[in-house]
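Form 12-C: Joint structure prediction
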Amino acid sequence: MNKFISLTLRIWRQKRPNEKGQFETYPAKDISTDISILEMLDVINEQLTLEGKDPIAFDHDCREGICGMCGAVVNGHPHGSEKGTTLCQLHMRHFSDGDTIVIEPWRSRAFPIIKDLAVDRSALDRIIQAGGYISVNTGGAPDANAIPIAQEAADKAMDAAACIGCGACVAACPNASAMLFSGAKISHLALLPQGKPEAAKRAIHMLMAMDALGFGNCSNERECEVQCPKEISIVNIARMNREFLKASFFSSEK
Amino acid sequence: MSLDAKIPGGPLADKWDRHRFELKLVNPANKRKFEIIVVGTGLAGSSASASLAELGYNVKTFCIQDSPRRAHSIAAQGGINAAKNYPNDGDSIWRLFYDTVKGGDFRAREANVYRLAQISNTIIDHCVAQGIPFARDYGGLLANRSFGGAQVSRTFYARGQTGQQLLLGAYSALSRQIAEKKIEMYPRREMLDLVIIDGQARGIVARNLISGEIERYAADAVVICTGGYGNVFFLSTNAMASNASATFRIYKKGAYFANPCFTQIHPTCIPVHGTYQAKLTLMSESLRNDGRVWVPKNPEDKISPQQIPESERNYYLEEKYPSFGNLAPRDVASRSAKEQCDMGKGVGETGLAVYLDFADAIKRDGKEEIEKKYGNLFQMYEKITGENPYETPMMIYPAVHYTMGGLWVDYNLMSTIDGLFVLGEANFSDHGANRLGASALMQGLADGYFIIPYTIGGYLAGTNLPELSTEHLAFKEAVSAVESQIKTLLSINGKRTVDDIHRELGLIMWDYCGMSRNNNGLQEARGRVQKLRAEFWENVIVPGSDKDFNQSLERACRVADFLEFGELMIIDALDRQESCGGHFNEAYQTEENEAQRDDENFCHVSAWEYTGADNEPNFHKEPLSFENVELTQRSYK
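Section 2 - Result
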């Protein structure tokens, strides 16, 4: 089962945020098809280190597809072209001997490059800070079963809440929009009775933050949905738009 | 210093209430005058930051990732325990308390564990109010399942992503306080030293991981929530950046480290595939609810598992433990798997794996039902291994997962250094020698949401805290020590990479201080770790510069600490001449190969005090007394 392949890698190298970057070519020889693409980068980095060169910087942490820390564009697809897969879970068995793999960072005005493949995604945190929460202080919550929630609503909320905040949707979108990310959080909370009191305020404030942070708008390209490693549906964007319209027409929120 | 756990008097069930009443309060208007540093943004750190900020304290929160939402609590799959007894199956606070003490093989503090069980219910209430999309029954009420060795269904879950959802809940509360300007968030910062002034924890020194600057932060109290030390084994289920540097450097500054040899090996991980593997992936233990664990009776059988007839299979957990079967506690299940593989019965390419088979469950409940419960786990397994677990039995093997040891804390979660509090996996307090499934999330959130907000107030209200600035000599000294270590690391320019040395350390620890241990092996390991450490400081190569985004340097600092910390684990394992929970010394086992405790000599917490490089640490004992549960031999027959 364990096969070995050799590849050519074209990887974006950029020392600092404002410096010019360029692609560099690296041979990757005898790569086990059982390892992930990040483990392959580990192997390359070990070689670069021993040769006295600067290893490739890339963000990663849990390596099991849940923390959302990793991400790069592989052959034109954020997280690569496997469906529902983060970069750390993209295994080399999906490539063939002799392939060339092009790896570059997320490209978006809102995500400045830090170094090589690592980008600054703190803009996503700021969208959440604008309203992606339910305002309850610790203590004083009613019994957890006091408010029944229909299974279907809970399931839909969970579907939306599965977002890992990796930013692939932004990287995939021709407008670099964060609509899928924002829509997922707005939907998750709007679907639950606990999130209703602040739904209007949340939708308006999060969308305003998104605009102010330099993300683009949605023009229904649906690339985000295709590339999302957690397969978050664009139904969430529709739901966000409804929440936003409702809020604009019927609430006093500005 | 004598180890006083400061456990309040009175009956067990009243201790926490009584203590909360006796703790001094900080006047609401005065809370804004206090600065608190929280390091780490997992469940404990995020929940503590948010709760303290809600009360009015000024909080500075630090994490090593690019966002506080990424801490490794996010990877917890299975669930969170609470004694709600919603299913009406006989659960109670007392039963959760009892199960946790027994599961920990009677090496945890009764009072702490009872408090944890009491708080468990409040956590669920709060999380639902935050909008955590827990699984629900058709009637809209919360669903529960039985999990990891529990005979009642007390585990709440959000598909296979409970840790993620709970962490995102805590992160949202944290984000709200950032927006309110009550929390200043410092991502991509790594704490590299604690600053102690006049015996009080008054600040930290941290490296800005983007610019490389060494920064200073002062506070009135410091709360450490930096998780466990499982990555000392190199391969573990921990995230790549999880490390012991904060806790270990605090130990070197004088805080005691408790029970470092208590590590938990999780039975259901995806087996190792090769040398370049960077980490192991856990499959939720909930899989054991429906999966059956087996190995072929005849190890020569190299045919595919589906073709092996029922009569040729050994369902060893069901046979050995008829009442718990596949749900035997983690340490028992892990050791049993190792036992089978050591006998040559292991499966897969490496022979280091056993089957976890869902064929019967699929026959019984249908594929759809199984998919509903475990769909995302099956998908994850298939992604990693390229095999479809609906058709071929999964292969699993134990891996390091959680560390019960940690910085010693009293009932207030304060360490032996005044003003230094330690929460979550980073402390040692609640799980004894073995943690039960779905208890880590409970403990992290109990510490952060519902304990620290009270106990830190008691400390701040009763303590004289002089004004200070980061120009204080103690800050300067800490900065220069950190800078000089970094300079040294960058100047060695040897021939072995950080990962190469880390991998070797991991193998030593796994072979000799892992699932089972013996005195000779531990002695051997100690020598090898010392030698490897010496080699590290002569022969490591760390490329790049200090004033840069330098991930090799980050790892080098962490591995430097692991190389010292590993020896402390071995010292502790050698000292504890008994077996209990996750610490299994082969010389101490029952006839049925279970851990044989020695309650007469080892019913205590071992707390170690640093005495300088290459010196033996000092041993301090906190005796454990069990007034409410009877010490028994654990039996899962």
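Section 3 - Comments
Chain A has eight helices and seven strands. Strands of chain A lie at 4-13, 22-32, 73-74, 77-78, 100-104, 113-115, 118-119.
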